[in-house]
Amino acid sequence: MVTPNNAEFLQNIQSKWQKKWQQARSFHADANPYHKKKFFLTFPYPYINGLPHVGHLFTIMRVEAFARYKRLQGFNVLFPQGWHATGSPIVDAAQRVREGEEKQLKILRDCGVPEADISKFAEPEHWISYFVPEYRKDIQSLGLSIDWRREFFTTELNPHYNKFVQWQFSILKKKGYVKKGKFPVVWDPKNNCPVPDHSRIEGEGETPQEFLLVKHKLKNGTSIVTATLRPDTILGVTNLYINPDVMYVRAKVDEEDWIISKKVAKALADQDKKVTVIEEVQGSSLIGQTVLEFSGLSVPILPAFFVQEQFGTGIVHSVPSDSADDLIALDDLKKDTALCQKYRLDMAMVKAVEPISVLDVPGFSPIPARDVLTQLGIKSQHDRQKLEKAKDILYKKAFYEGKVNKLYQKARFKGLSQDYAGQPVEKAKEGIKHDILNSEFGDVYYQLTGRVVSRSMMECVVRIVEDQWFLDYGDPVWKKLAHDALNNLTLYPEKARAQFTYVIDWLHQWACTRETGLGTRLPWDEKWLIESLSDSTVYMAYYTIVHLLQKIDVRNVNGALFDYVFLDENTGKLLVDKKDADAMRREFDYWYPVDFRNSGKDLIQNHLTFYLFNHTAIFHKDKWPKGIGVNGWVTVDGSKMSKSLGNVIPVREMVKTYSADAARITILTGGEGMDDPNWDTEFARSIIPKLEQFYTLARDVAAAKDMTTAKDRAAAKGTAAGETSTGKTSTDGGRYTMKPIDLWALSNLHQIIHDATALMEETSFRSAIQKIFFDLQRLLRWYLRRTKNSPNTTVIKELVDAQAVMLSPFTPHLCEEIWSMLGKKGLACEASWPVAQQDKIDEQANAAENLVQETAADIQSVLKLLDIQKPASIALFVSPAWKYQLFAIVRKQLDTTRNPAEVLAAVMKNAPAELRSHGQDISKLIPKLVQGGLPPMILPQEKELAALRDAVDFLSAEAGCPVQIASADEASEPKAKQAQPGKVAIVVKQ
RNA sequence: GCGGCGGUGCCGGAGCGGUCAAACGGGAUGGGCUUAGGACCCAUUAGCUUAGUGCUUACGCAGGUUCGAAUCCUGUCCGCCGCACCA
Fold first, then answer.
1. How many other C-beta atoms are found inside a 10 Å radius of the C-beta of residue A904?
2. What percent of chain A is helix, strand and coil (3-state, nearest 5)?
3. Which of A35, A426, A711, A862 has its CA 20 to 30 A from that of A871?
4. Using CA atoms, how far apart are residues A614 and A566, in angstroms rounded to an integer?
5. Residue A586 above 70 pLDDT?
6. How far apart are alpha carbons A354 and A351 in whole angstroms?
C-alpha cells in the first residue's frame, strides 16, 4: 500500500463537520406540503454479514453524491438506509462458528471482533446486533447524508417490518401473483434438507438439470426408459443402445413398468415418483428385442459399450443422424460379426438400420453426424476425446442454426400437436418436448449438472419439493405492467434499457419461499420463509413511515393500516390513532414514488426487475418507480476484486489512510455509466495535495480583501472612475477594471457550470468531477497566471464560491471548511447550486483568449527554436483584412460543397474585386481550408487586435521583451503576410 | 450459444463525421522555485522535419460509405457482466 502524502489535514476537519451536520439535522427529511420539490433516493440495503468495503462504496457514493446535489438544487431530499438480514448466509455462518470452523473465525477476527466475543456469533441474532452498528459507523465516517432516524432491519426479528412484508404478500396472493407448484432442489438425503450453494463442500454452482425421459415400449408393455436433452431429434431414433454388462432394474414407477439403471430408480423416488424395484435385469438379456417408439416405428435394441451406467438412465436411444456416438457405434456393430453372433443378432437386421435425417443444418449433409465423423477422422467409439468434440460441434450447430426438417409434419405423426417442419431447432425443441410429455412416451427427470457434496459429507441428489410457492413473473398481464413501469422511468444510464426489457420478458416463475434461514413467514403457510430477494422488492415504501410506525405497539399494526397508508383504502378497522395513521399516510404520499434507486448492474436480472414487477402489483400507478441507476463492478487498481488477491479494501481502512473526502472523490472518479469503476490507489494518493491546494487558494482569496497590486490600482485610476474598458461597472474593492481576461474567466466558469449541471443530472459523476475540479482548477491557474496574480476580486470569488458548492457533493467536509472560511452564512450542504448564466458565456471571449494563449505559446517555441534567450523586441501581426473576408466566404461555401475546385470557383465569383486581386494566394489557401476545416470561430480583425493589445503586458512578460502589435495590412515585413485569422505572425528582433 | 457492455497513446480514460497526434488525470523526462523536498510552477512525452510549420504512421483486425472516419456501415477477433431461485 502506498502511504499517502498527508491526509491529516482532511481527516482533522472530518468529524467537526459531521458533528455540525448532525447538530443541524441537515439530513433529517420530513414531508413538507409547502415544499413541493422532493427527491427520494435509495440503494439496496446491504446484507450484514460483514463490513463495507471498496466494492460497496461506489454504489453508496453514487446515491450520496446525487442526494447532496439534489439538496443543493433546492429539493427536499430523503436518503434513508436499512439493513438486510433475510436469507441463509448468516444462519450458515453462525452454524460454522458453532462448529468452530477456522476460516469463518478468521473472517470475524479480520472484521475486528475481539477473541472473547467470537463465540457470540454462534447466534444469528448476534450478527445483526454486531454488524448493524459497525457497518453504520463505517459508512457514517464517510460523511453520508443519510436520515438515520429511518433505519431498520429485516426478518421476523423486527416485528413491524415482518408485518409489512406479510401485508405485501397477502396482496400478491390476493391478486393471484403467488402460486403453488413443484420445484426441484439440491437435497441432502442424510439431513433431509435443501443444500444452498454456499453450504456445499463440493459443487458450488451446480444445479438440477431437467432431462426428458422417453419411454420405449416392449411388447409386454414394459418401458425401456432413456433420458435426453434433445427432444428435437426424437423422430430420428433408429434403435436403443444398452450396455450388455450392466445390471439394470425393472421397477414399478407409479403405475408403470420401467427398465432403468439402479441409480435412476433411487433418484426417481425423490422426484415425486413412487418407485418399487421388482427385479434386476441383465443388459444382455434385452438385446435383440424391439420396442415401439413415439414415432410409431418399431426399433431394435442393440449392444454398445460407450453407454455408461451412471449417466442418464444408463440406456441410450440412438439418433445416428445427429449423434456421432450413436453413428460410430452403429458402424462398429455392422462390422462386428462376432459380437452380433454373441447376442444372436440377425446381421441383416443390423445392417438394415440406417440413420433417419431429421434436421437441416446449414453447411451439413442430411446426416450431420456422418460429416463430423469424417471431418474429425473418428475411427471407433473408443475415440472418446474426438467424440466429445464432435458432440459439441453438432449440438451447437444444430441447436442454434438448424431447422427441423419436413419429417415433422403434423399429418405424419399423430403425436405432434403442430407442424414443426421448417422451424428453427431452438424453437421447435420446446414444442416437441411438450408433445412428448403429453403423450404416453414422455416424463421428466432431474439430474445434477455436477457432483455436489454437503457439509454432512453426503452426496446430494435432486428432490422435487411439493407445495413450493412461486411469484409468477411469467404472467403476461404482469409482464405488461412491468413494461409499462419501465417505459415510464428514467434510467441512469439510458443504455441499460435493452437489458431490462430483455429481463422482463425472460423472467418466469420465481420460487419465493425457503425452508431455512432468517426471514418473514408466509402469512398463510407458516412453514415457509419468504426468500431474501422476494422480501425486498417494495420496502422503500417502508422507509417513508418507519420512524413513525416503529413507535407504535406492534399489536396494533394490521393489514388495514397498511392498506390505508399505502393504498388509500379503508379495508378494516384501524387499531391505531387515526392521527398517527394520517401522519404516516402523509409521509408516504409525499415521498413516494422513489425517484432514484441505484445498484450494481448484476441486479438488473433479479432485484431491480422484481422491484418493478412488485411495485406494479401493489401500488397505484403514480407510485411506481421514477428512476433506476445501475453501475459496474468495482475493480482495484485494474484488477478484479477478490479475497485471494487481498485487494478488498475495507471502508474504515480507506478513511484512515486517505480521509473521507479523498476516498469519496477517488471512487467516483473511477468510472461511470455501465463501465466497471476502478479504485485507483495512485489517484487517491495524488488527489490529497490537490484538495489541499484548493483550500490554500480559497484561503488566500478569503484573506486578501484586495488581491490587486498597488500598480494595478494606480493604472486603474487612469481610467474614468468606475468605468472599465468594456463599459462595465466594477463594484468591489479589488482590481477596478473588468478586463477581457476577466470576462473570459467568467465565460468559462459559466460554461463549466452549465456542463457540470447537465452531467450531474444524469449522474455522470466522473465527468462532472472532471469539469468541477480539474477543468476549473486549470481555469483558475491560467487566470492567475494571465493576470499575474492580480485577478479581479469579484471574479476570483465567484470562481471559488462556485467551486466550493459544486464540489461539495464529492468532498463535503473540505467544502464546508472552505465555505466557512469564506465567511459564508450557513452550511455548504444547504447552499445553492450555481446557475449557469447564458449571457455570460461568450464565445468571442474564448476565441480571443485562445489567440492570446496560442500566441504566447508560439512565441516561446520560436524563441526556443532560434535559441534566443534575450530577444530585443517582438512584433506581432494579425492577418491582413482580405483573409478575414476570404474565410467568411469560404465558410459559407463549405455548407454547399466540399470540392476545393468548386469552392475556389465560387469564391472567385462572389468575391469583391479587392479580394480577387489576391487570386494566387487564394488558390493556394483554399485546398487547405477545405481539407483541414476552419476554426470554430473567427474573430474580426479589430477584435483580434484588441485582444492582443489587452494582453500586451502579459505577452511581454512571457516573452521577456517589449511586444508590438500591428495589422499585416500596413506592414512591410514579408513574414507578416503569413498571418491568418486566428493565427498571428511573429517577427523576432535580436 | 443467448442477452448486455466494451476494445483509444507508457497507464487510467474522454472523444463518437472536419477545430484530432487525440481532453483531463497518472507515470516518466527536463527545467524553475527552494536549505531540501514525496509540495508547488513550467515544458516535453508516435516518428521525421521546420522560425511558431509540414509530412508519415496511429484509435483491436479486415473491408466499405464519404471530398474527409477514432467517430458511420458490414464482417471478424478479443475482453468483461449475467443466464436464476443466490445475497
1. 19
2. 50, 15, 35
3. A711
4. 14
5. yes
6. 8
Residue A429: C-alpha distances to residues A210, A228, A360, A436 (Å): 14, 12, 14, 11
Q: Which nucleotide is nearest to A401 (CA to C1')?
A: B1
Measuring CA to CA, which residue among A772, A986, A971 is closest to residue A858? A986
Nucleotides in chain B with any atom closer than 7 Å to protein CB: 1-6, 11-15, 18-19, 23-27, 38-44, 50-54, 67-68, 80-87
Instruction: Say if residue A210's pLDDT is above 60.
Output: yes
- Distance CA(A177)–CA(A216), nearest Å, equals 39
Residue positions counted in chain A: 990
Lowest mean pLDDT among A88-97, A199-208, A748-757: A199-208
Q: What are phi and psi of A326, to 5 degrees?
A: -65, -40
CA dist A843 and A827 (Å) reads: 34
Closest residue (CA) to C1' of nucleotide B68 is: A931
ipTM for this model: 0.89
CA of A919 to C1' of B66 (A): 29
Predicted confidence (pLDDT) at residue A927 exceeds the cutoff of 90 = no
Q: What is the pLDDT of residue A190?
A: 77
Residues 6+ apart with CB under 8 A from A832: A72, A74, A805
The answer to whether the Cα torsion of A592, A595, A599, A601 is positive or negative is positive
Helices (H), A619-763: 651-658, 660-669, 681-703, 710-718, 740-761
| Residue range A327-357, pLDDT digits in tens | 988 998 998 889 889 988 898 899 999 999 8
Grid coordinates given for A738: 473588468
A60 alpha-carbon distance from chain centroid: 13
Distance in Å, residue A290 CA to nucleotide B45 C1': 81
CA distance A848 to A937: 10
Cα separation, A600 vs A968, whole angstroms:
61
Pick left, alpha or beta for residue A750 (phi over 0 → left; psi -120 to 50 → alpha; otherwise beta): alpha
CA A686, C1' B26: Å apart? Answer: 9
Distance CA A321, CA A63 (A): 58
> In angstroms, rounded to a whole number, what is the distance separating the alpha carbons of residues A723 and A716?
9
- Closest nt by CA–C1' to A775: B24
Buried b / exposed e along A590-609 (16+ C-beta atoms within 10 A)? bbbbbbbbbbbbebbeebbb
Question: What are the tens digits of pLDDT across the range A75-110?
Answer: 999 999 999 999 888 988 898 899 888 888 998 998
- Provide the CA A770 to C1' B15 distance, Å, integer: 14
B11 nearest neighbour residue (CA to C1'): A638
Please tell me the pTM assigned to this model. Answer: 0.81
